[in-house]
From TrEMBL:
Originating gene: fdhD
The keyword Ribosomal protein appears for this protein: no
Record's keyword terms, sorted: Cytoplasm, Molybdenum cofactor biosynthesis
Family in the record: Belongs to the FdhD family.
Name of this protein: Sulfur carrier protein FdhD
A Gene Ontology cellular-component term: cytoplasm
Length: 270
């Protein structure tokens, strides 16, 4: 049985400051699949930080109405599954046996969780589709794409609580943008809009207002996007996934500055 991974990990990156390049490292948050099971039945798999897992299990059980008090969880075991994630096994006291089964059927996945409801750690840990595009962009193009994303957020301009995902191409600028309160929902909407319009994603940049977690890389890779750029930092798993599938991952993109975590050759001059 493998040890539980640390919640933070330092990974190399190249920072572009608008005028110079600087090699170094950034501390990134780790994310992993956490399978929650009750009396031998898997309830959900969540992507989460591998820290305070007992607190997470109890809090999730309470907030989902699976138990009324922590005392109803009579036993808990946290198991690391090599290369897959973590399983938290819980045993419940003698309460109406259908309670968590009914609740499981009703669990639709709260906004922002990303991978709620997936039945197995194998599915949560599946590799991203390979990205084969030879598209390249100048550093200034990244700043232009992120600014265009910010300027086009109509819903967020009114509500200040909405994420966006956009597709940008050098010759056309912003091709499409979609907004949603959930970052992964926004990306799904963008993918759907582009597919319906017959627009391919292999010659541009997918720009995000959010952090980059593993499901964002998986979704963008499925679109065939060669570059994903985000305002916030990625998780360590997102970096590993982007590296493995051949995607260029840029993050912490603010103004003319950004950090390149994978496949920097797609950014000209980096």
């Amino acid at each position: 049985m493998n040890a539980i991974p640390p919640p933070l990990i330092s990974l190399p990156r190249t920072a572009y400051t608008g005028a110079a390049l600087m090699a170094g490292e950034r501390m990134l948050a780790e994310e992993t699949g956490i399978a929650l099971s009750y009396d031998g039945v898997t309830h959900a798999v969540m992507m989460a930080s591998p820290a305070d897992l007992e607190d997470f299990a109890v809090g999730f059980s309470l907030s989902e109405g699976i138990v009324a008090t922590p005392a109803e969880i009579t036993d808990m075991e946290v198991l690391s599954r090599a290369g897959l994630g973590i399983e938290i096994r819980m045993r419940l006291a003698e309460i109406p046996g259908s309670r968590h089964v009914r609740r499981r059927r009703a669990l639709a996945g709260p906004v922002g969780c990303g991978l709620c409801g997936i039945e197995s750690l194998q599915e949560a840990a599946c590799p991203a589709d390979p990205v084969l595009s030879d598209f390249r962009a100048w550093p200034g193009a990244i700043a232009e794409a992120m600014q265009a994303l910010c300027d086009a957020q109509a819903m967020n301009g009114q509500a200040a609580a909405v994420h966006a995902a956009a597709f940008w191409r050098p010759a056309e600028g912003l091709v499409a943008i979609r907004e949603d309160v959930g970052r992964h929902n926004a990306l799904d909407k963008l993918a759907g809009a582009m597919a319906r319009a017959g627009i391919g994603a292999t010659s541009g940049v997918v720009a995000l207002t959010s952090r980059v977690s593993v499901e964002m890389v998986q979704k963008a890779a499925r679109m065939g996007a060669p570059i994903i750029a985000a305002i916030s930092a990625p998780t360590a798993l997102a970096v590993r996934t982007a590296e493995a599938c051949g995607m260029t991952l840029l993050a912490v993109a603010r103004g003319e500055c950004f950090e390149v975590f994978t496949h920097p050759a797609r950014v000209i001059g980096v």
